[in-house]
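Field notebook, page 651. I keep forgetting to write these up properly, so this time I am using the form the group agreed on. The chain and the ligand, adenosine monophosphate, are recorded exactly as supplied. Prediction of the bound pose follows.
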Amino acid sequence: MSDWEDEPPAPVETYNSRSFHKSNNYNNSNFGRGRGRGAPSNSNWRARGQDNRENRQNSRPQHDGNKQVITIPSNKVGRVIGKGGSKIRDLEYETDAKIKIGDSGGDTTEITLFGTDEAIAKASDMITDLTKEYVQPAPKNESHYNSNANTSGNFSTTNDYGDSIIDWNKLNAHYEEQQQERWSQLPPIVKDFYKEDPVVQNMSPAEVTRWRFNNNQIQIKRTFDDKPGLRPIPNPVLTFEQAFQHYPEILDEIYKQDFKKPSPIQSQAWPVLLRGEDMIGIAQTGTGKTLAFLLPALIHIDGQPTPREQREGPTVLIMAPTRELALQIDKEVSKYQYRGIKSVCLYGGGDRKEQIKVVSKGVDIVIATPGRLNDLVMARHLNIINFSYIVLDEADRMLDMGFEPQIRKSLFDVRPDRQTVMTSATWPSGVRRLAESYMKDPIQINVGSLDLAAVHTVTQKILFVEEDDKDKALFEFIQNMDPTDKVIIFCGKKATARHIHTELCLKGIESQSLHGDRDQSDREAALDDMVTGAVNILVATDVASRGIDIKDLTHVVNLDFPRHIEEYVHRVGRTGRAGKTGIALSFISRNDWAHADELIKILEEANQEVPDELLSMANRFSAMKIRREQEGGGGGGRGRGGRGGRGRDRW
Ligand code: AMP
């Protein structure tokens, strides 16, 4: 299995899934379930910016018993074959036809279809559809074209040189009209499910401010202009009952989890989301953000006027940057049973056929990575027009990984009156742009993520090592462990975790491992072994840094220092739990100098010893930054940027 957890984004073509020259069958109930889509169009494709006559090519089929040959433009063969042959396999699976790509005869290529008449017709239909030229409307203010087009439905015009070109303005207007019409035919949605508890309602502004300050210093505001007429920001709920007393089945599900109270983001997000507002949560993983958007999503699904079985397509979409995160969300979703709501997790590398099968059976929640989502939307396995609650989870990370085109393509058609939620650890301009494009008057909640109380019961030690000496230092540590000690060893990469686990096995030391390449049951077994004491060493990546509760864990070893200081706090917080003390040992190499300053702050705050070497590391790093700035080169060092590249072997 590759260390890359999700398929890297495919090269992007600038088209969308509509065709302006064919009557709109987008609302056709066949759409999105992969069934037949009506008779094939004769005018199959039209190259952008060229004369229509030149581009209308003949795809008329030639029949030969239960075999049929169709021709398509050679430059569209890739669409039929798909990445690594995935599309052609998919077509064969769906249609039951056998599909053979023939030799290219220059501009056109023959495709032979074998099978029953029905299978052949279906395959021909789908290939015709796939090879159509799709046209992306130009930006609205693009006015450099000489727009003297007639109004007869012809979208070509002539430019200053007399060439026939596409009249984008007209095409845009036409497209927009069609889209508006499609949207206007959709069933209505309901978004407001909130009845504010009197106790919450009666909180004084001072009480609310104090609560926010004491709860990770939450800040909350409208992200963009606070226009007149918008409702005031709601007060936080302090208990689960204040949020969900009208949904006892949801409350029961929460009680099963044994949580004591809502996390800060949940307290503040639930009133916002239950009220149907768009929301941006600036929060790290581990803050309880998944449940913050999930429980309102369940209520939203169940509360729509159109019965679930009559809806065309799923209701909730949760997009996540990586397979790990998607699966983690899926796992969280599966913990909460509510009125038979079903979900599916779509991610690159997973069994595509199986995913298509589940989608076509009808689900309410789709959890997806952008690449796979886009793939299934473009292949029309998934009807997205009806999503009315959308979550972009870890939006900054999705952008870092280059998924913006996929996100934009996938969301282009979704009904505009939907509710949109976005979470992000940071607030860079790309995320802001996304919010501007896809959200309506969002309310933004910033949650300070450092819950330093978690690390006050832990003795935090630092060991300075060269990268190459880490293994040796680690094995020395292990050899000196007491029989009753229990340790998690955190590694920065899956490959490192695998390596350490293997080395331990070779040395005859029993251990378990937990990282993104292990399947769910293995991960659960690994944790179980730690909890029961079958092993006392767990080698892990950051998949293990949150939510894991091994009560008698005595040590955390950071073999690799985490990329974010928040992660350090989470890792360290795995020990020293339930009133016990714990020890965290962090190996620091010269590569970690960018973190020295933040680490010093944490150590000081927790009354820990700060080694001189760490102070001088921090000084060296800040001197380097100043030098770089003076040279005009910016910060440098090992900051947060470039996550896409380094992310290849994460988790
Ligand atoms: P998340 O930030 O969504 O990744 O959540 C991290 C972990 O916190 C998950 O294992 C959740 O089950 C858990 N969690 C969510 N809400 C709460 C809560 N109110 N109290 C305690 N744990 C929670």
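OBSERVATIONS:
- Residues 67-128 form a domain with the Ribosomal Protein S8; Chain: A, domain 1 fold (CATH 3.30.1370.10).
- DSSP finds 24 helices and 20 strands in the chain.
FOLLOW-UP: compare against the apo run.
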